[in-house]
Amino acid sequence: MSAPAARRSRQARVVWGDRVVTVGGDAPVRIQSMTNTDTVDAIETAIQIRELAQAGSEMVRITVNTPEAAAAVPYIREQLDRMGENVPLVGDFHYNGHRLLTEFPDCAQALSKYRINPGNVGKGDKRDKQFGQMIEAAARYDKAVRIGVNWGSLDQELLASLMDENNRRAQPWDPRQVMYEALITSAIDSARLAESMGLSGNQIILSCKVSGVQDLISVYRELSRRCDYALHLGLTEAGMATKGTVASTAALAVLLQEGIGDTIRVSLTPQPGEARTQEVVVAGEILQSLGMRMFVPSVTACPGCGRTTSTTFQELAKRIDDHLRAQMPVWRLRYPGVEAMRVAVMGCIVNGPGESKHADIGISLPGNGEAPAAPVFIDGEKAMTLRGDNIAEEFHAIVDQYVQRRYGAAAA
Question: What reactions does this protein catalyze (predicted)?
Fold first, then answer.
């Protein structure tokens, strides 16, 4: 299997205290997410930030849209620090960011990165001045900046200018191509303006968010070709559940395989009652499936068919997967390398023993017509056979013992 291509980009540093998250250059592709709480509620927001960070988000973005929200940011940071959570915070600014960063210096300092939308920083003569105020704050406090263009809030003056220019062409571009050009031009021109105002180009990350898979691929291929800034990658308004997951995976996998993208966000609309952390899980699965990073032990399980006699293997696979994910915040520190562990939970004799042998630890549960026995394989060798009514509980314990024995020794 060919490895993802390499794109040489500048490297930004998103910092809080001793925590440094590098983005671009030779850094791994980073995962980030965003809260959906009211930022004014500092406690609720801090709790969700911690949940996202524990799930694997290496930066967490929060909405900073009002004076009350800006005033709450330092308290959110304080709560996180008290909890021992040093994940960097990104402030999401639209329309009034120049004023909030100026009037609330404690907010500006508590954030580790600012997200600026060039389409929402002001119009006409005010645009450059207000943009400059935000860049000045970033330079003063040594913060990274994401210049994030979105086709739902594109700079209309720039778009009109490019459309007029297109109309004068002997062979006018397709309107969609003009839209692509407006997105890319807005991002790159804004980045260069920021550099001219004193912000290091290494501290600039660009994004051009669209909601269509093919649109995103086309825009980022061209954006990548025309600049060496670090790139934030993701569909905007990807959607809910299966649709959002599939669309994000389809777009991001193509670009990441081509070496395009330094940090990603999977923007899923949560289903009622669904945890916000699901989008972090999906982002991690995308990177892990591509072999780019490892976050949590993988669980291989068959889909089930007429040979399988019950849902026991499905329930056990889910139980093991949930347990591994829940333990990772602790295991990551205690058992180095455990994230690369492979577990197999199979439902019959056809592929069960083979998949179990290929995994670090695996079990082949009995299928229809098979003897009521479940062989367990450890490091490619049959270690034991489980029988009776407590197979699930026994295998769960065997997995925990395996982690402690194999990865605990590495830590020692």
Answer: (2E)-4-hydroxy-3-methylbut-2-enyl diphosphate + oxidized [flavodoxin] + H2O + 2 H(+) = 2-C-methyl-D-erythritol 2,4-cyclic diphosphate + reduced [flavodoxin]
